[in-house]
Design a protein that fits this description.
The structure holds 2 protein chains of 2 kinds. By secondary structure, chain A is mostly helical. Chain A has 2 domains: 22-63; 82-325, MetI-like fold. Chain A contains 10 helices and 2 strands. Chain A has helices spanning 22-63, 86-117, 120-135, 138-164, 181-204, 209-217, 222-251, 254-259, 278-285, 291-325; strands at 74-75, 82-83. Chain A has a two-stranded antiparallel sheet with strand order 1-2. In chain A, helix 5 (181-204) crosses helix 7 (222-251). Chain A starts with 21 loop residues before the first helix and ends with a helix. Chain B is mainly α. Chain B has 2 domains: 6-113, no CATH class; 122-355, MetI-like fold (Orthogonal Bundle). Chain B has helices spanning 6-21, 29-47, 53-76, 78-113, 118-122, 138-169, 176-190, 194-208, 215-239, 243-251, 256-284, 288-293, 312-322, 325-355. The chains are: A mainly alpha, B mainly alpha. At the A-B interface, helix 1, helix 2, helix 3, helix 4 and helix 5 of A face helix 4, helix 6, helix 7, helix 8 and helix 9 of B.
């Protein structure tokens, strides 16, 4: 995961070195052509994803008799065609935001621990451990969330209902605490932890030694050093780490599809069964959808694509700007 | 001076330190606070409604925070109290991260180990209903190996070539804008949700080009998911190949493309292999795009271009959502096989990275 940050272009051997004669030049031209084509292929793929999703979403959007953005129903294969993404948008944002509230402080804490608190030898092991967490397939997180975590979370759900039930968010009128947005969010939080911590860690270790030592020399405690020299330097990195984590949480499919009970309503009481997200809805309805149904799912996928694209691009722009202007190194 | 006893010297050191740094908690302060908090939590466990191991531990940690912070505040002052609070918090986050990893691995091992047998690994689910015992994931194993293999066949060369363009050619090429765009969109591509990639392959190759949903369409989706990861890791490896190596090669009159093939790539090979293995490990567990681009199958199909083909993730999904006792057990068995596969790839990649390759300065 140490690959995410744009490097300033390293000085690389520049043009012309050793190029003499037509045969040599042909070899170079072929090689340059191949590698440039591979690069352009990536741009073409990104453009094609957008183009095909838009194209194949149009039939259902035209057939839809309800408002696509404000409807909370999903009957694209009936006559009249009625479907909309309001409940999906709610569920997706709700799970992702709760997941981020849980994951960002913990992820940054882990990154701090590895970069500035743990002894170096231990830090390497711990970095490996968080990477392992990233390697666990999401379907396994889903199964685990359903069979292991759900019983553990019942106590928390009850506690929230008993003591914080006056806040509508935490009230539970059903007496059931399984298959809820809360559980899905906790699993999502665990899944995005490695993303948040790996990228924060990468920025934390770039903090110039001089800033750290200057703070310590002035008598700062370790925490004051972190606040005075690490956080100000790493703030853009921390923001984009969180946004990349958010992007992952928004698009996570299988774990959420297994955990939520896929209801199609907007329910603010997060410990009750229910909720649905863009990605989970696509996976769950895919095999029973007709032509318009598939097209409607593509339309919802397009919305998800646009949301994650915006989040990711914003994150990349923030972190790239830091790379350009960090005068410290 | 040398007449001072050891005790006296210690005392004078202590005085000097206090004058400079102020009063500190004694060295035994933190352990005592921890033991005290645990004991108090245990008492609360006995006499109040606090119960359960997890609940007691949470209470113990909170008590520890209160005791330590208050004590430190009274003795050392506000700044050190805050520092100790933050340190405990940072250490705690790590335990929070470790707990789910251990819990996930233990759950998979405990529930999956009983299912694994030679029959489970060598038979398919042909003619076995979800309710009945028996059957296995042989068909899924074959599917996953083929699909991931084909994806690697496309993804690895494409990724390496792109990285070569970005590192070796782009800085000198006139089209800086192109290379910046590619670099930017490689990053953005890592963030495209896997389900969206599945939708794209379905709309483009199945709906538009009329291909059938098969193992091959699945591997196309995996290729796209794998590509940006390989580009980034290869790029990183190429950048740490020392510039002197390239220049030595140019000085001998070797053209650039041969320098890349014979000098740069071999030097970075171990790192590139590591990156590719990590990318493969990551896509091997992808489920959503496979659900969209293949049909589930219960029997062995060794032809990825034709007909339904199973894979480990879709096998697990199918068995788990069938929701009978026998099928859920099979799902956990599949999960164990999948996680072992991923972890072996992962571990091997890390070992290669550790013992070979260019060392970072």
């Amino acid at each position: 995961m140490s690959t995410q940050i744009e490097h300033p272009a390293t000085p690389s051997p520049t043009d012309g070195a050793g190029i003499e004669g037509a045969a040599v030049r042909r070899g170079d031209r072929v090689f340059l052509g191949m590698s440039r084509t591979a690069g352009i292929f990536i741009l073409v793929t990104m453009a094609a994803i957008a183009a095909f999703l838009i194209w194949k979403a149009i039939p259902s959007l035209q057939a839809n008799t309800a408002n696509f953005f404000t409807t909370s129903e999903w009957f694209p294969d009936q006559n009249p065609v009625v479907f909309g993404i309001a409940a999906l948008t709610f569920g997706t944002l709700m799970t992702a935001i709760i997941a981020m509230i849980l994951a960002v402080p913990v992820g940054i804490g882990i990154a701090l621990f590895i970069a500035h608190y743990a002894p170096p030898r231990l830090a390497a092991v711990l970095g490996f451990v968080t990477d392992l967490l990233a390697a666990v397939p999401s379907i396994i997180f889903g199964m685990w969330g359903l069979q292991f975590l759900t019983p553990q979370m019942e106590g928390l759900g009850k506690w929230l209902n008993d003591y914080l039930g006056f806040i509508p968010l935490f009230r539970n009128d059903t007496g059931q605490y399984s298959k809820s947005i809360l559980i899905a969010s906790v699993v999502l939080a665990i899944m995005v932890l490695p993303t948040v911590s790996a990228i924060s860690r990468e920025v934390f270790v770039q903090v110039p030694r001089e800033h750290i030592e200057a703070a310590l020399a002035l008598g700062a405690t370790r925490w004051e050093m972190v606040r005075l020299s690490v956080f100000p330097f790493a703030r853009p990195g921390m923001i984009s780490a969180s946004m990349l984590g958010l992007g992952r949480a928004l698009g996570e499919t299988i774990a959420v599809a297994l955990i939520l009970s896929a209801s199609y309503t907007i329910n603010w009481q997060i410990s009750e069964p229910g909720g649905n997200t863009f990605a989970a809805n696509i996976a769950l309805r895919w095999n029973e959808a007709g032509d318009i149904g598939l097209s409607a799912l593509v339309a919802s996928g397009l919305v998800l694509f646009v949301i994650t694209l915006v989040v990711n691009m914003a994150a990349r722009i923030i972190i790239a700007r830091r790379a350009d202007f960090s005068g410290a190194n | 001076m040398s007449e001072l006893t050891r005790n006296e010297r210690d005392e004078s050191d202590e005085l000097l330190r206090q004058a400079l740094a102020g009063e500190r908690l004694p060295r035994w302060g933190v352990p005592v606070a921890a033991v005290g908090a645990l004991a108090l939590a245990f008492v609360l466990n006995l006499v109040t409604s606090v119960d359960g191991v997890a609940g007691t531990l949470v209470v113990a940690v909170l008590l520890f925070l209160v005791i330590q912070t208050t004590w430190s505040f009274l003795v050392e002052g506000r700044r050190h109290a805050v520092d100790r609070l933050a340190t405990t918090g940072v250490y705690a986050t790590f335990v929070i991260a470790l707990a789910p990893l251990v819990a996930v691995l233990l759950t998979v091992i405990v529930k999956g180990l009983g299912v694994i047998s030679s029959t489970f690994l060598t038979t398919s689910m042909r003619n076995i209903s979800p309710r009945s015992e028996g059957g296995g994931l042989y068909h899924a194993l074959i599917g996953t190996l083929q699909q991931v293999g084909i994806a690697a066949l496309f993804g690895v060369p494409l990724g390496i070539l792109t990285a070569i363009y970005l590192v070796e050619y782009a800085p000198s090429a006139k089209s800086r804008r192109l290379s910046r765009a590619i670099s930017f969109f490689v990053d953005v591509m890592t963030g495209v949700p896997s389900v969206v990639v599945g939708l794209f392959i379905f709309t483009a190759f199945v709906l538009t080009l009329g291909m059938e949903r098969s193992g091959f369409t699945a591997s196309l989706a995996l290729t796209i998911l794998m590509l940006p990861v390989i580009v980034r890791s290869t790029e990183e490896m190429l950048r740490i190949v020392p510039r002197e190596l390239r220049e030595a090669s140019y000085a001998l009159g070797i053209p650039k493309w041969r320098t890349i093939l014979k000098v740069v790539l071999p030097t970075a090979l171990a790192g590139i292999v590591t990156g590719a293995m990590l990318a493969i490990a990551r896509v091997a567990g992808e489920t959503a795009p496979l659900l969209l681009t293949t049909f589930l199958s219960q029997s062995v199909n060794t032809n990825p271009f034709k007909g339904p083909q199973a894979s480990l993730p879709t096998f697990i999904w199918d068995q788990f959502t069938s929701a009978t006792d026998a099928s859920v057990n099979r799902a956990w068995g599949g999960a164990l096989v999948l996680i072992v596969l991923v972890m072996v790839l992962y571990g091997a990649a890390k070992i290669i990275a550790r013992y070979t390759g260019v060392k970072r300065s």
